[in-house]
Amino acid sequence: MKIAVAGTGYVGLVTGTCLAERGHCVTCVDVDENKIKMMESGKSPIYEDGLEELMQKNHAAGRLSYTTDYQAAYCDADAIFIGVGTPELPDGSADLHFVMGVARQIAESVQKDCLVVVKSTVPIGTNDEVEKLLKECVNGRVNIEVASNPEFLAQGTAVRDTLNASRCVIGTESKNAESVMRAIYEPFGIPIVSVNRRSAEMIKYASNDFLALKISYMNDLANLCELVGADVKAVAQGMSYDERIGRRFLNPGIGYGGSCFPKDTKALRSLAADLGYELKTVSAAIEVNQMQQIRLFTKAEEMGIELEGKKIAILGLAFKAGTDDLREAASLKNVPLLLEKGANLVAYDPVAQDNFIRRFPEGQQGSGSIHYVHSAKEALQDADLCFVYTEWPEFVSLTPSDFIKTMKSPVVFDGRDIYQPEEMKNAGITYIGIGR
Ligand code: UGA
Questions:
Q1: How far is the CA of 356 from the centre of ligand 1 (A)?
Q2: pTM of this prediction?
Q3: Which CATH number does the domain 2-195 belong to among 3.50.50.60, 3.90.950.20, 2.30.170.40, 3.40.50.720?
Q4: For residue 90, how many other CB atoms are within 10 A of its CB?
Q5: Which of 53, 201, 257, 364 could form a disulfide with 328 if both were Cys (CB 3.0 to 4.6 A apart)?
Q6: Is 25 a known active-site residue?
Q7: Nearest Cα to 397, choosing from 388, 409, 385?
Q8: To test the ligand 1 pocket, which listed residue (219, 261, 416) has its Cβ within 8 A of the most ligand atoms?
Protein backbone atom coordinates (compact mmCIF):
# COMPACT_ATOMS: atom_id res chain seq x y z
CA MET A 1 0.00 0.00 0.00
CA LYS A 2 1.20 3.56 -0.66
CA ILE A 3 1.47 5.35 2.66
CA ALA A 4 2.55 8.86 3.69
CA VAL A 5 3.52 9.67 7.28
CA ALA A 6 3.40 13.25 8.58
CA GLY A 7 6.01 13.97 11.27
CA THR A 8 9.36 12.28 11.76
CA GLY A 9 9.59 12.28 15.56
CA TYR A 10 9.60 9.15 17.69
CA VAL A 11 6.10 8.14 16.62
CA GLY A 12 6.11 9.18 12.95
CA LEU A 13 9.57 7.99 11.97
CA VAL A 14 9.34 4.66 13.79
CA THR A 15 5.86 4.02 12.39
CA GLY A 16 6.94 4.89 8.85
CA THR A 17 10.05 2.76 9.04
CA CYS A 18 8.19 -0.23 10.47
CA LEU A 19 5.40 0.06 7.88
CA ALA A 20 8.11 -0.03 5.20
CA GLU A 21 9.76 -3.01 6.89
CA ARG A 22 6.42 -4.83 6.62
CA GLY A 23 6.31 -4.21 2.87
CA HIS A 24 4.45 -0.93 2.40
CA CYS A 25 5.76 1.89 0.25
CA VAL A 26 6.25 4.79 2.68
CA THR A 27 7.08 8.49 2.34
CA CYS A 28 7.91 10.34 5.55
CA VAL A 29 7.10 14.04 5.50
CA ASP A 30 8.62 16.73 7.68
CA VAL A 31 8.91 20.52 7.47
CA ASP A 32 12.53 20.45 8.61
CA GLU A 33 14.85 20.31 5.56
CA ASN A 34 17.88 19.46 7.67
CA LYS A 35 16.15 16.45 9.15
CA ILE A 36 15.17 15.23 5.69
CA LYS A 37 18.75 15.59 4.40
CA MET A 38 20.04 13.76 7.45
CA MET A 39 17.63 10.86 6.94
CA GLU A 40 18.41 10.67 3.24
CA SER A 41 22.07 10.24 4.15
CA GLY A 42 21.08 7.26 6.34
CA LYS A 43 21.14 8.98 9.72
CA SER A 44 18.31 8.97 12.21
CA PRO A 45 17.58 12.35 13.81
CA ILE A 46 16.65 10.57 17.05
CA TYR A 47 18.48 7.96 19.12
CA GLU A 48 16.44 4.78 19.02
CA ASP A 49 17.82 1.27 19.21
CA GLY A 50 17.81 -0.46 15.80
CA LEU A 51 16.06 2.39 13.96
CA GLU A 52 18.92 3.63 11.81
CA GLU A 53 19.70 0.16 10.45
CA LEU A 54 16.06 -0.40 9.55
CA MET A 55 15.83 3.04 7.90
CA GLN A 56 18.91 2.31 5.78
CA LYS A 57 17.67 -1.16 4.80
CA ASN A 58 14.24 0.03 3.69
CA HIS A 59 15.55 3.17 2.00
CA ALA A 60 17.96 1.03 -0.03
CA ALA A 61 15.10 -1.33 -0.94
CA GLY A 62 13.14 1.66 -2.29
CA ARG A 63 10.30 1.29 0.21
CA LEU A 64 11.16 4.29 2.41
CA SER A 65 11.72 7.88 1.31
CA TYR A 66 11.74 11.29 2.95
CA THR A 67 10.51 14.65 1.75
CA THR A 68 9.42 18.16 2.69
CA ASP A 69 7.11 18.19 -0.35
CA TYR A 70 3.88 17.24 1.37
CA GLN A 71 1.75 17.74 -1.72
CA ALA A 72 3.69 15.14 -3.68
CA ALA A 73 3.57 12.73 -0.74
CA TYR A 74 -0.15 13.11 -0.02
CA CYS A 75 -1.65 13.49 -3.50
CA ASP A 76 -1.91 9.79 -4.37
CA ALA A 77 -1.42 8.03 -0.99
CA ASP A 78 -3.84 5.25 -0.02
CA ALA A 79 -3.38 6.15 3.65
CA ILE A 80 -1.84 9.16 5.39
CA PHE A 81 -0.67 8.75 8.98
CA ILE A 82 -0.52 11.83 11.22
CA GLY A 83 2.28 11.40 13.75
CA VAL A 84 3.04 14.98 14.74
CA GLY A 85 3.36 16.23 18.32
CA THR A 86 0.51 17.30 20.60
CA PRO A 87 2.45 19.27 23.23
CA GLU A 88 1.00 20.52 26.47
CA LEU A 89 -0.57 23.98 26.57
CA PRO A 90 -0.14 26.13 29.70
CA ASP A 91 -3.56 24.96 31.01
CA GLY A 92 -2.57 21.28 30.64
CA SER A 93 -4.72 20.64 27.57
CA ALA A 94 -3.23 19.23 24.34
CA ASP A 95 -2.13 21.61 21.61
CA LEU A 96 -3.75 20.39 18.37
CA HIS A 97 -2.21 23.07 16.22
CA PHE A 98 0.18 20.66 14.41
CA VAL A 99 -2.44 17.94 13.86
CA MET A 100 -4.93 20.39 12.38
CA GLY A 101 -2.19 22.02 10.29
CA VAL A 102 -1.33 18.66 8.71
CA ALA A 103 -5.04 17.95 8.15
CA ARG A 104 -5.33 21.20 6.15
CA GLN A 105 -2.27 20.28 4.06
CA ILE A 106 -3.76 16.86 3.38
CA ALA A 107 -7.07 18.40 2.29
CA GLU A 108 -5.37 20.72 -0.18
CA SER A 109 -3.19 17.92 -1.61
CA VAL A 110 -5.23 14.71 -1.96
CA GLN A 111 -6.36 13.78 -5.44
CA LYS A 112 -7.85 10.39 -4.76
CA ASP A 113 -9.89 8.69 -2.04
CA CYS A 114 -7.81 8.00 1.03
CA LEU A 115 -7.81 7.15 4.70
CA VAL A 116 -6.26 9.57 7.19
CA VAL A 117 -4.94 7.77 10.24
CA VAL A 118 -4.42 9.75 13.45
CA LYS A 119 -1.53 8.26 15.42
CA SER A 120 -0.77 11.31 17.53
CA THR A 121 -2.24 11.20 21.05
CA VAL A 122 -5.30 13.43 20.80
CA PRO A 123 -8.20 14.31 23.12
CA ILE A 124 -11.36 12.30 22.72
CA GLY A 125 -13.40 13.67 19.82
CA THR A 126 -10.42 15.04 17.86
CA ASN A 127 -10.74 12.43 15.11
CA ASP A 128 -14.29 13.66 14.52
CA GLU A 129 -12.96 17.22 14.27
CA VAL A 130 -10.22 16.17 11.84
CA GLU A 131 -12.75 14.37 9.64
CA LYS A 132 -15.09 17.36 9.70
CA LEU A 133 -12.29 19.71 8.68
CA LEU A 134 -11.09 17.39 5.91
CA LYS A 135 -14.57 16.87 4.48
CA GLU A 136 -15.29 20.59 4.52
CA CYS A 137 -12.01 21.38 2.77
CA VAL A 138 -12.17 18.69 0.05
CA ASN A 139 -15.83 19.54 -0.51
CA GLY A 140 -16.77 16.19 -2.10
CA ARG A 141 -13.79 16.25 -4.50
CA VAL A 142 -12.60 12.92 -3.10
CA ASN A 143 -13.79 10.63 -0.32
CA ILE A 144 -11.70 11.05 2.82
CA GLU A 145 -12.23 9.06 6.01
CA VAL A 146 -10.44 9.20 9.34
CA ALA A 147 -9.31 6.34 11.57
CA SER A 148 -7.80 6.52 15.03
CA ASN A 149 -4.74 4.31 15.57
CA PRO A 150 -3.13 5.20 18.90
CA GLU A 151 0.51 4.45 19.51
CA PHE A 152 1.80 2.26 22.33
CA LEU A 153 5.54 2.22 21.64
CA ALA A 154 7.93 3.29 24.38
CA GLN A 155 11.08 5.27 23.61
CA GLY A 156 14.22 3.18 23.69
CA THR A 157 12.34 0.07 22.52
CA ALA A 158 10.25 1.79 19.86
CA VAL A 159 11.14 -0.44 16.90
CA ARG A 160 10.66 -3.67 18.83
CA ASP A 161 7.42 -2.36 20.36
CA THR A 162 6.05 -1.49 16.92
CA LEU A 163 7.03 -4.65 15.06
CA ASN A 164 5.85 -6.90 17.90
CA ALA A 165 3.13 -4.71 19.39
CA SER A 166 0.99 -6.19 22.15
CA ARG A 167 -2.02 -4.99 20.16
CA CYS A 168 -3.01 -2.66 17.38
CA VAL A 169 -6.01 -0.52 18.30
CA ILE A 170 -8.03 0.76 15.36
CA GLY A 171 -10.91 3.16 15.81
CA THR A 172 -13.16 3.51 12.79
CA GLU A 173 -16.66 4.60 11.91
CA SER A 174 -17.11 2.64 8.67
CA LYS A 175 -16.50 -0.86 7.31
CA ASN A 176 -14.31 0.60 4.57
CA ALA A 177 -12.00 2.39 7.03
CA GLU A 178 -11.79 -0.75 9.17
CA SER A 179 -10.85 -2.95 6.23
CA VAL A 180 -8.13 -0.53 5.05
CA MET A 181 -6.66 -0.51 8.58
CA ARG A 182 -6.80 -4.29 8.79
CA ALA A 183 -5.01 -4.55 5.43
CA ILE A 184 -2.25 -2.17 6.58
CA TYR A 185 -1.58 -4.14 9.77
CA GLU A 186 -2.20 -7.64 8.38
CA PRO A 187 1.55 -8.20 7.65
CA PHE A 188 2.41 -7.43 11.31
CA GLY A 189 0.56 -10.52 12.57
CA ILE A 190 -0.42 -8.81 15.84
CA PRO A 191 -3.82 -8.79 17.64
CA ILE A 192 -6.12 -6.14 16.23
CA VAL A 193 -8.63 -4.46 18.54
CA SER A 194 -11.30 -2.81 16.42
CA VAL A 195 -13.46 -0.24 18.23
CA ASN A 196 -15.14 3.08 17.47
CA ARG A 197 -13.01 6.20 17.14
CA ARG A 198 -13.77 7.75 20.52
CA SER A 199 -13.05 4.49 22.33
CA ALA A 200 -9.73 4.17 20.49
CA GLU A 201 -8.76 7.70 21.53
CA MET A 202 -9.75 6.88 25.11
CA ILE A 203 -7.79 3.58 25.15
CA LYS A 204 -4.59 5.54 24.61
CA TYR A 205 -5.14 7.93 27.52
CA ALA A 206 -6.56 5.18 29.69
CA SER A 207 -3.44 3.04 29.15
CA ASN A 208 -0.87 5.80 29.67
CA ASP A 209 -2.63 7.28 32.68
CA PHE A 210 -3.06 3.86 34.26
CA LEU A 211 0.69 3.26 33.97
CA ALA A 212 1.40 6.74 35.36
CA LEU A 213 -0.95 5.98 38.25
CA LYS A 214 0.83 2.67 38.86
CA ILE A 215 4.18 4.46 39.10
CA SER A 216 2.83 7.24 41.34
CA TYR A 217 1.19 4.64 43.56
CA MET A 218 4.55 2.89 43.99
CA ASN A 219 6.27 6.22 44.67
CA ASP A 220 3.64 7.17 47.24
CA LEU A 221 4.07 3.75 48.88
CA ALA A 222 7.86 4.12 48.74
CA ASN A 223 7.63 7.29 50.80
CA LEU A 224 5.43 5.48 53.31
CA CYS A 225 7.80 2.47 53.34
CA GLU A 226 10.55 4.82 54.53
CA LEU A 227 8.39 5.88 57.46
CA VAL A 228 7.39 2.35 58.49
CA GLY A 229 10.77 0.72 57.88
CA ALA A 230 9.73 -1.46 54.93
CA ASP A 231 11.68 -1.94 51.68
CA VAL A 232 9.57 -0.89 48.69
CA LYS A 233 11.59 -3.09 46.31
CA ALA A 234 10.73 -6.12 48.40
CA VAL A 235 7.11 -4.95 48.56
CA ALA A 236 7.01 -4.62 44.76
CA GLN A 237 8.47 -8.08 44.36
CA GLY A 238 5.86 -9.53 46.66
CA MET A 239 3.09 -7.77 44.72
CA SER A 240 4.42 -8.79 41.32
CA TYR A 241 3.58 -12.50 41.66
CA ASP A 242 -0.10 -11.62 41.54
CA GLU A 243 -0.95 -11.74 37.85
CA ARG A 244 -3.68 -9.19 38.40
CA ILE A 245 -0.99 -6.69 39.41
CA GLY A 246 1.81 -7.78 37.12
CA ARG A 247 5.57 -7.41 37.30
CA ARG A 248 6.11 -4.28 35.27
CA PHE A 249 5.94 -0.57 36.13
CA LEU A 250 6.28 -1.20 39.83
CA ASN A 251 9.67 0.54 40.03
CA PRO A 252 9.68 3.53 42.35
CA GLY A 253 12.16 6.32 41.77
CA ILE A 254 12.26 9.99 40.94
CA GLY A 255 8.90 10.02 39.21
CA TYR A 256 7.88 9.51 35.62
CA GLY A 257 9.11 11.84 32.89
CA GLY A 258 9.14 11.80 29.10
CA SER A 259 6.91 13.26 26.46
CA CYS A 260 3.87 11.14 27.28
CA PHE A 261 2.87 10.40 30.88
CA PRO A 262 3.25 13.98 32.20
CA LYS A 263 1.40 15.38 29.18
CA ASP A 264 -1.29 12.70 28.89
CA THR A 265 -2.21 12.76 32.57
CA LYS A 266 -2.66 16.53 32.46
CA ALA A 267 -4.55 16.40 29.16
CA LEU A 268 -7.09 13.85 30.44
CA ARG A 269 -7.56 15.76 33.68
CA SER A 270 -8.09 18.97 31.71
CA LEU A 271 -10.52 17.27 29.31
CA ALA A 272 -12.51 15.89 32.26
CA ALA A 273 -12.53 19.30 33.96
CA ASP A 274 -13.88 20.92 30.78
CA LEU A 275 -16.78 18.49 31.03
CA GLY A 276 -17.31 19.33 34.69
CA TYR A 277 -15.79 16.10 35.97
CA GLU A 278 -12.94 15.90 38.46
CA LEU A 279 -10.64 12.98 37.63
CA LYS A 280 -9.35 12.48 41.18
CA THR A 281 -7.15 9.42 40.65
CA VAL A 282 -5.21 11.01 37.80
CA SER A 283 -4.90 14.31 39.70
CA ALA A 284 -3.36 12.39 42.59
CA ALA A 285 -0.86 10.71 40.25
CA ILE A 286 0.18 14.12 38.90
CA GLU A 287 0.57 15.58 42.39
CA VAL A 288 2.65 12.66 43.68
CA ASN A 289 4.85 12.84 40.60
CA GLN A 290 5.57 16.54 41.00
CA MET A 291 6.85 15.96 44.53
CA GLN A 292 8.69 12.78 43.60
CA GLN A 293 10.76 14.38 40.85
CA ILE A 294 12.58 16.48 43.44
CA ARG A 295 12.45 13.88 46.22
CA LEU A 296 16.23 13.40 46.38
CA PHE A 297 16.84 17.12 46.60
CA THR A 298 14.26 17.41 49.39
CA LYS A 299 15.94 14.53 51.23
CA ALA A 300 19.35 16.23 50.99
CA GLU A 301 17.80 19.42 52.40
CA GLU A 302 16.07 17.50 55.19
CA MET A 303 19.37 15.83 56.06
CA GLY A 304 20.92 19.30 56.40
CA ILE A 305 23.53 18.55 53.74
CA GLU A 306 25.40 21.69 52.73
CA LEU A 307 25.42 21.90 48.92
CA GLU A 308 27.24 25.20 48.40
CA GLY A 309 30.69 24.72 46.86
CA LYS A 310 30.28 20.93 46.89
CA LYS A 311 31.42 18.86 43.94
CA ILE A 312 28.42 16.78 42.90
CA ALA A 313 28.48 13.94 40.38
CA ILE A 314 25.30 13.76 38.29
CA LEU A 315 24.82 10.33 36.75
CA GLY A 316 22.16 10.38 34.03
CA LEU A 317 20.21 13.21 32.45
CA ALA A 318 17.71 11.43 30.14
CA PHE A 319 14.17 10.83 31.42
CA LYS A 320 14.90 7.10 31.37
CA ALA A 321 17.62 4.77 30.07
CA GLY A 322 17.72 3.99 26.36
CA THR A 323 16.85 7.46 25.07
CA ASP A 324 18.42 10.86 24.42
CA ASP A 325 15.13 12.58 25.22
CA LEU A 326 15.08 15.13 28.03
CA ARG A 327 11.43 16.06 27.97
CA GLU A 328 10.13 16.25 31.55
CA ALA A 329 13.31 14.56 32.79
CA ALA A 330 13.85 14.84 36.56
CA SER A 331 17.36 16.17 35.80
CA LEU A 332 15.83 19.35 34.35
CA LYS A 333 14.15 20.08 37.66
CA ASN A 334 17.02 19.05 39.93
CA VAL A 335 20.01 20.59 38.18
CA PRO A 336 18.67 24.18 38.55
CA LEU A 337 17.88 23.53 42.23
CA LEU A 338 21.43 22.29 42.89
CA LEU A 339 22.95 25.17 40.90
CA GLU A 340 20.88 27.67 42.85
CA LYS A 341 22.42 26.28 46.02
CA GLY A 342 25.88 27.02 44.60
CA ALA A 343 26.89 23.41 43.86
CA ASN A 344 29.58 22.51 41.31
CA LEU A 345 28.09 19.79 39.15
CA VAL A 346 29.99 17.24 37.08
CA ALA A 347 27.44 15.58 34.82
CA TYR A 348 27.52 12.56 32.56
CA ASP A 349 24.94 10.85 30.37
CA PRO A 350 26.03 8.40 27.66
CA VAL A 351 23.45 9.66 25.14
CA ALA A 352 21.48 12.71 26.32
CA GLN A 353 24.47 14.87 27.26
CA ASP A 354 24.64 16.94 24.06
CA ASN A 355 20.96 17.81 24.33
CA PHE A 356 21.46 18.83 27.96
CA ILE A 357 24.46 21.04 27.19
CA ARG A 358 22.24 23.10 24.87
CA ARG A 359 20.04 23.93 27.88
CA PHE A 360 22.79 24.21 30.49
CA PRO A 361 26.04 25.27 28.82
CA GLU A 362 29.31 24.22 30.39
CA GLY A 363 30.69 26.65 32.99
CA GLN A 364 29.47 28.98 35.69
CA GLN A 365 25.68 29.09 36.16
CA GLY A 366 24.66 31.65 38.76
CA SER A 367 26.38 30.79 42.01
CA GLY A 368 27.09 27.21 40.90
CA SER A 369 28.71 25.59 37.89
CA ILE A 370 28.25 22.63 35.56
CA HIS A 371 30.92 20.67 33.80
CA TYR A 372 30.49 17.61 31.53
CA VAL A 373 32.65 14.49 31.36
CA HIS A 374 32.73 11.27 29.34
CA SER A 375 32.28 8.49 31.85
CA ALA A 376 30.63 7.75 35.19
CA LYS A 377 33.97 7.25 36.89
CA GLU A 378 35.24 10.60 35.65
CA ALA A 379 32.12 12.24 37.09
CA LEU A 380 32.66 10.52 40.43
CA GLN A 381 36.31 11.55 40.70
CA ASP A 382 36.77 13.52 43.97
CA ALA A 383 33.03 14.19 44.24
CA ASP A 384 31.46 14.98 47.62
CA LEU A 385 28.06 13.69 46.61
CA CYS A 386 26.50 11.70 43.79
CA PHE A 387 22.96 11.89 42.44
CA VAL A 388 21.77 9.11 40.11
CA TYR A 389 18.88 10.21 37.89
CA THR A 390 18.88 7.61 35.07
CA GLU A 391 19.25 3.83 35.22
CA TRP A 392 21.79 3.43 32.37
CA PRO A 393 23.49 -0.04 32.47
CA GLU A 394 26.86 1.69 32.93
CA PHE A 395 25.64 3.09 36.25
CA VAL A 396 23.89 -0.12 37.32
CA SER A 397 27.19 -1.98 36.95
CA LEU A 398 29.11 0.36 39.29
CA THR A 399 30.21 -1.44 42.46
CA PRO A 400 30.49 0.01 45.98
CA SER A 401 34.27 0.07 45.56
CA ASP A 402 33.93 2.25 42.43
CA PHE A 403 32.30 4.90 44.61
CA ILE A 404 34.70 4.42 47.51
CA LYS A 405 37.83 4.58 45.33
CA THR A 406 36.83 7.63 43.29
CA MET A 407 34.71 9.89 45.48
CA LYS A 408 36.09 12.26 48.09
CA SER A 409 33.33 11.38 50.54
CA PRO A 410 31.01 8.64 49.33
CA VAL A 411 27.44 9.93 49.69
CA VAL A 412 25.15 8.43 47.06
CA PHE A 413 21.56 9.48 46.30
CA ASP A 414 20.13 6.67 44.19
CA GLY A 415 17.05 7.96 42.34
CA ARG A 416 16.43 4.64 40.61
CA ASP A 417 17.08 2.19 43.43
CA ILE A 418 19.72 0.44 41.33
CA TYR A 419 22.16 -0.37 44.14
CA GLN A 420 21.83 -2.71 47.12
CA PRO A 421 21.50 -0.56 50.26
CA GLU A 422 23.17 -3.14 52.52
CA GLU A 423 26.16 -3.62 50.22
CA MET A 424 26.60 0.13 49.86
CA LYS A 425 26.30 0.78 53.59
CA ASN A 426 28.63 -2.12 54.48
CA ALA A 427 31.24 -0.62 52.16
CA GLY A 428 31.09 2.65 54.14
CA ILE A 429 28.90 4.62 51.73
CA THR A 430 26.18 6.95 52.96
CA TYR A 431 23.43 5.56 50.77
CA ILE A 432 20.05 7.23 50.23
CA GLY A 433 17.59 5.42 48.00
CA ILE A 434 13.86 5.70 47.46
CA GLY A 435 11.54 3.78 49.76
CA ARG A 436 14.12 1.76 51.65
C1 UGA B 1 5.04 5.63 27.40
C2 UGA B 1 4.26 4.31 27.35
O3 UGA B 1 4.96 3.29 28.08
C4 UGA B 1 4.04 3.84 25.92
O5 UGA B 1 3.23 2.67 25.89
C6 UGA B 1 3.36 4.97 25.13
O7 UGA B 1 3.18 4.61 23.77
C8 UGA B 1 4.23 6.22 25.21
O9 UGA B 1 4.38 6.60 26.58
C10 UGA B 1 3.56 7.30 24.41
O11 UGA B 1 2.46 7.72 24.79
O12 UGA B 1 4.05 7.65 23.32
P13 UGA B 1 7.64 6.30 27.27
O14 UGA B 1 7.20 7.65 27.77
O15 UGA B 1 8.52 6.23 26.08
O16 UGA B 1 6.35 5.39 26.90
O17 UGA B 1 8.42 5.58 28.44
P18 UGA B 1 8.09 4.57 29.63
O19 UGA B 1 9.00 3.43 29.52
O20 UGA B 1 6.65 4.28 29.75
O21 UGA B 1 8.58 5.45 30.90
C22 UGA B 1 7.93 6.67 31.25
C23 UGA B 1 8.51 7.18 32.54
O24 UGA B 1 8.13 6.36 33.64
C25 UGA B 1 10.04 7.22 32.59
O26 UGA B 1 10.47 8.41 33.22
C27 UGA B 1 10.41 6.02 33.43
O28 UGA B 1 11.64 6.14 34.07
C29 UGA B 1 9.26 6.01 34.43
N30 UGA B 1 9.02 4.68 35.05
C31 UGA B 1 8.69 3.60 34.29
C32 UGA B 1 9.14 4.56 36.42
O33 UGA B 1 9.44 5.53 37.13
N34 UGA B 1 8.90 3.35 37.00
C35 UGA B 1 8.56 2.25 36.27
O36 UGA B 1 8.34 1.17 36.87
C37 UGA B 1 8.45 2.38 34.88
A1: 20
A2: 0.95
A3: 3.40.50.720
A4: 6
A5: 257
A6: no
A7: 388
A8: 261
